[in-house]
From TrEMBL:
Keywords: Cell shape, Cell wall biogenesis/degradation, Glycosyltransferase, Hydrolase, Lipoprotein, Peptidoglycan synthesis, Signal, Transferase. Residues 1-24 form the signal peptide. GO terms for cellular component: extracellular region. Belongs to the YkuD family. This is Lipoprotein-anchoring transpeptidase ErfK/SrfK. GO terms for molecular function: glycosyltransferase activity; peptidoglycan L,D-transpeptidase activity. The keyword Glycosyltransferase applies. SUPFAM superfamilies: L,D-transpeptidase catalytic domain-like.
Length: 200
């Protein structure tokens, strides 16, 4: 009788360990970290609140030189502005290029994509051979929920699964926003929208 109880207890314990391990795997995902050149295992945020930007989106007064419909990226401030007109602009927090990966210029949005796929550049794959040749769109994709392609450059304004990096200089030159903020901007702009990137 005692042996039977021990066997049952052992089976229950094994099932519990297996369930816990499976749950732990479900609660994590892998994402490319350009600062280290490797795939990192990230714990999924347990709540929607944890996925929000640490920099809140807000409507501000705007009296600058750019016209309505322009997107202004200020890498020094780590902010993006969408000029909405009538003296107003929407200000978003962003993540920008780390040292050595900053740039500036005036371009236009040439393409928009929802849940875009990601093809790591050859230079990245050379540094990190375990990177996939292609990663389909989805919540684990480094480009997040939306992407807006900037001119003929390799850069994009895109979402991220790492909202805690907003306000930091961590990317390889792309402009990252939270998935919620990039979806909001995505609805405001179209192909041909002017993007002004300032670097001071």
């Amino acid at each position: 009788m005692r042996i039977s109880k021990l066997l049952v207890a052992g089976a229950v314990l094994s099932a519990l360990v297996a369930t816990t391990a499976a749950k732990a795997e479900e609660d994590t995902y892998k994402i490319y970290d350009p600062s280290t050149g490797s795939m990192q295992t990230i714990k999924r945020a347990p709540t929607r609140r944890a996925m929000e930007s640490p920099v809140k989106r807000e409507v501000i007064d705007y009296a600058g030189p750019y016209g309505a419909g322009t997107v202004i990226v200020n890498t020094a401030e780590r902010r993006l502005y969408y000029v909405s007109g009538e003296g107003k602009a929407v200000k978003y927090g962003i993540g920008v290029g780390r040292p050595g990966f900053t740039w500036s210029g005036t371009h236009h949005i040439t393409r928009k994509a929802e849940w875009p796929g990601w093809t790591p550049p050859p230079a990245m794959r050379k540094r990190q051979p375990d990177l996939p040749i292609f990663m389909p769109g989805g919540p684990d994709n480094p480009l997040g929920s939306r992407a807006m392609y900037i001119g003929s450059t390799i850069y994009r304004i895109h979402g991220t699964a790492e909202p805690w990096t907003i306000g930091q200089a961590v990317s390889s030159g792309c402009i990252r926003m939270t998935n919620e903020d990039v979806a909001d901007l995505y609805e405001k702009v179209g192909v041909g929208t002017t993007v002004v990137v300032l670097h001071e």
